[in-house]
Every structure is written in structure tokens, then in C-alpha cells.
Amino acid sequence: MYQNTMFVTIAQGITQADVDAAENAALNVGDSGEKIRLMNLLNEAHQQFDTNTNVQLRQQNEAARKAVNGLFNNDTPTSGAVKSNLTQSAIDAAKNLVNQLVDSTVKANMQKDLDKAQNLLNASKPPVNFDITVAPFKLGKDNYVTGQFSGDIAKISLTVNNNAEGSKINVTAPDFKYYANNVIRSQTDIVILKAYDGNGKLLVTKTVTVTKDAPALVPTGAISSITPFQLGKDSYITGTFTGDIVKVELQVNKAPLQRINVTGGTIKYYAKPNITKTTDVVELVAFNAAGEAVSSKEVTFASTGTTNGDVTVNPFLLGKDGYVKGQCKLTF
Asked: Structurally, what CATH architecture does the domain formed by 131-211 represent?
């Protein structure tokens, strides 16, 4: 604990823990004479340590008070004015010294003077001059939050849904942009842009409006027309459609058959084995991309044509003829 074996002055950097450890070691010495000698040396070390500690605390108090007083005119907090060349860094340096003080009462009094200096400095600064506008952020289209600004703004940051504030980036007037594609995910996100001056002081917060384009409207699907089906001649039911239709289904007498894909606005459904008579109730049902039935239309039957002709009947001879006979002539 001492500088040398002369045991006159304690070494530099001795702490309370060092003193306590040496005292515990001395108490465990078995030789009573040696223990008394060591305890005498420890008592002297204690006195020197306490004296040095008090001197150190006094020096810390004096250094902090000098720094705080130096913020004011005539080095006097009661002057009510700070020095004309006072800077924020000088206040910060004084604050650092005050924070190291041990005596809470002394520390509190100096903190009051620090607060006074800070308020006077803030009041002496010219009013902050700036303006900023933020464009809406469009989901699915924009990668950056963008806008324009002027004046004392030097940095901006982005905060989404009260999570940790994003990195502060430097900006240069008049335009700014902040990459946000990876953090803005929903139209319900709460997005806050913060603007700072060159000293890191928060100047303003702006809410970023998040928008989203309405989905493109697809016309509702509809079967436009169906060509009449000629039984015995046609193999396919054909027709046309418009809008959101991707499949059609044939229903014969209310019984649904296979659902097939359709494209290009045209329908062609093989139906020859399924439609067997003109009294069948035949219907086409159309479905959209979501699988919803959106249109239906009855399939009508085409006429098979008109037949004309002449019939000639021979006389019937009673008692001789067994059949009525004649000739017919048909014209198609």
C-alpha cells in the first residue's frame, strides 16, 4: 500500500478495496507483535487515504463549479446571462463534470445552474427555420418515403409501429428519400418521419400516409351467346363469353357434367354423347377465377328443317283389295 519500505506515503491509485483487503490480511497474522505493527501502518494508511479522498472530492467539486460558473457572464450564475460565445459543447463538458460528483446536494445545486445556462443558450439562438412536406407512400409501388424540405434540417429517420427508430440519414435540400420498402408492409402501419438539425435536436415529426392502389376491376363474367344445338348433326355446343370466366360446365336435366377451361371469349363443349333428345333440359354454367358461378344460359335446339310433299291414294276395291295403296313424293 505504501510507495516503498519506508512506509511514509501510500502509493498512488490506492482504493478503499485495497485498504480493506490489507486490513483483513493483517488481522489474520498470528504473531501479535507483527499484527500490532501492521495495524499501526494500516491506521496511518487509512488517514492518508481519507485525506487524499477528501482532497480528490474537493478538487472534483471545484473543477465542476469552475466549469459551471464559466458558462455565465463574470463567471457568476446569478448574473442572469450566459457568455456571448457560449457553445453547446461547453455546457455538455460542464455537465459531464457535474455527473461525476458524489455529494448529491452539491450535484443538485450545480445541475440547477446548468439548466439555467441551457435555457439561456436556447433563448439566445435565432428561431429554427425549416419546412418539410412528405409524400404519401404507396404500397406495392414505392420503395422510398420521399418529400421536400428547406431550412435547418440535416438528418431524418423513420419509425414504424413504435418499433426502434431507424438510422438517421443525412439529407440535402430540397429533396429527400428514405428507403422503406423493407419496413412498411401494411396500409395500417403507423409510420413517423423525424427531422433533426445539425446538432441532433429533434425539429419535427411527420406522419407518413400509407396508401394502396385499389385492385383492378375485372368485369363480371357473362355468357354472351350460345349457338342452337342441332341434334343428330352437332357434336359441340359453341358460344361466346365476356369478363372473368375461366371454366364452363354442362348440365343436362340438372345433372352437372365435366367442367372445362375456356379462353379467348369462346366456348366449345363436346356434348354429342350427353344430349340425346330435344326434350332434354340443357344449360351451360360459367365460373370465374375464384370458382364462383357467375353466369348461366339455356342451350336451345335448332330446327331439323321443313318437309313438303304430295300423296296420291289409289281407289280401294271392296272384296278384292286388302291394303290401301298409293304413292308419295317428298321434297326436302
From this structure: Sandwich (2.60)
